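User: Hi! Is it possible to get a structure for several chains at once, not just one? Here's what I have:
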Amino acid sequence: MKRRDFIALALALSSSVAMPAFAEDAAQPYKGAHLAVLMEGHPTTDGIQALLPEFTKATGIEVDLEVVPESDITAKMLLEFSSGSGRYDVVQNNIIYIPGFVQAGYIVPLDDLAAKLPDNYDKADFVPGYLNTSIVDGKLYGLPVYGESTFLMYRKDLFEEYGLTPPKTFTEVAEAAKTIKEKSNGEIAGITMRGAQGIQNVYVWAGWLWGYGGQFITEDGKSALGSDEAAASLDAYARVLRDYGPVGVANFGWEENRVLFQQGKAGMTMDATVNGAFNEDPSISSVVGKVGYTPVPVETDKLKGGSSSLAVHSLYIAEASQQKEAAWLFASWATAKEQQIKSFGIAPNSGVTSQAALNSEEFNKRYGAFKDAMLASIARGNPQYLPTVEAANEIINNAGIAVSKALAGSASAKDALAEANAANDAALSR
Amino acid sequence: MHDTTRYFYRPVVLLFGAISAVLTLYVVWLTLHNISLLRPGRESFIGLDNYLRLLTDGRAINALGRTVLFTVAATAAELVIGLAISLLVDRDFRGKRIVRAILLVPIVMTPVVVGLTWRFLLNPTNGMMNYALSIVGLGPVDWLGDPNVALFSLLLADIWQWTPFVVLLAMASLESLPEDPQNAARVDGAREWQVLWHITLPALKRALLVVALIRAIDAVKAFDIFYIMTRGGPALSTETLNLYGYISAFTNFDISYSLTIAMVLTILTNVALLLLYNLAFRAPKQGQA
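Assistant: Yes, the chains can be modeled jointly so their relative placement is included. Here is the combined structure:
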């Protein structure tokens, strides 16, 4: 090769490389930004993690995604928030923390960012019930990553064999549980639910509390766990699990409870709608096609709120973040319908928050068995299902101790709740 | 007398002393406020309120009781079982080195692994323990789900992990004991249990007290297996003061109250250990003098 040719070739090569790079710089105003994101260990997070390279390629923004268990995530972000470190740009958490975070000034409203960088954000595509939970005083604070409700799951085959009908009240739940346990000679537990102390047992028992006409906090901000309705609901919850539940239920969290039902060892369970995705997955479940889904029962007409949960986990942008616009680009990309639809192929995920994803062919194929019951539960989902006040965590913890005590029989439901009631009043007044 | 070595050790002592004094005072200062992670900028000085709250907090007092019960039971059981095993293996036999190596396994295991392993063993539906019980026609026992049993299940795991530590130290002490007094006693017609009770054990006393102290300090601080196996449940039956402090900080975000709990536990532990230490080491010297 002659020297002149070589120079010409080198010039041609360098220009062909350099030209698109200039073009990309214009399209990637945030190129080189480095975001730190804290998310929960959950199937939706797996999906976002797998799709991250596409985001980096499109925007030039690098993302450090840190994944921790849901039970530890609040403490982790609060330690950083309270010191104003700016360690995390985007965090994920349950919407029950929004009021506390907003009051403390830890997270920022997103409306201005949405107006400035609207490319990935399609407000109308979010399930309205989900997006509304992230709005405080008319301002948007979070973008829903996943949402779910709770419902009652029952074994259609067993119900048919024993001549049972899907329960509409908790009394009928107890009767059905009794029948299943007795007619299967104790081989199959009548019902399984979470018993582990803390958010685990409270998340399911709360459905009974509301369904019996109780509530966590009164309108004037006092604890309401000392009521007769609350005591009746806890007494029924503990009784049905003690009498017809599986061995070891006192330590059952979401996972243990789900696995037992998937293995066909229980006739009913009441839990998150995402469990449907696991029940209908042939690679892990032995009850595919045998499960019926129906809303969480109610015991009375006089409800202070629905007995189905409305649990939404959103992405928030930290006040201390130095790169809020790049953070918004990530949050709006991670919750956009394109990513949600792609996530079906990555992990079992029925908690999508995009209506386009919910109505997609893929969703119907995978989760058609429980889609209607899930949508019905979400529609009647109670946004106050778990307390949303500043001291929410402590109130849930105290209630969990009461449920655990009643379940273990170390205190009566009324006494255990009286104790929790006093502790919650103290927490609310602190 | 002028001792020049003091110019070398005094600055070091001063530095360490200053660091621990500053930290302790800072913690005390924090306990006199009402700092919560959820209420930034709204903390205020509240004097001794946190300490008064702790005094009337039934949950804390029960937790303290469990800490004491766990510490005493774990230390005593580990000491007795460990001593018995070390006396049994205190002779030359084939494979002694292998036995010693195996004894090390539980000690070097990470507590998280120990906790998970025991959780599987104690699983009420498909754990090995209930299977073993079912062979002899007993059970099933809900090891970690029954509030009357759960603390003992945790004790079992702690004893399994830390008894070998006692065995190793006791074996080392036994091997370094002079044999002459024992043989002299045997010549004088003492039976084996008399030799053990009157000669061997008194000679081991010092070593055993040190081991007991180390184990007691560790047992007060035990956290990992509690966190992994029960997280304080069911029905608070395994919540020690340590764990309550953790929950106050990381579930309730009540930093000042959590530090108050930690402070009180530290003070109580220090007083108890100082008393034990004096009992173990000062008294004999005064007796001799």
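Residues 8-147+311-368 of chain A form a domain with the D-Maltodextrin-Binding Protein; domain 2 fold (CATH 3.40.190.10). Chain A touches chain B through 34 residues (CB under 8 Å).

User: Great, thank you!
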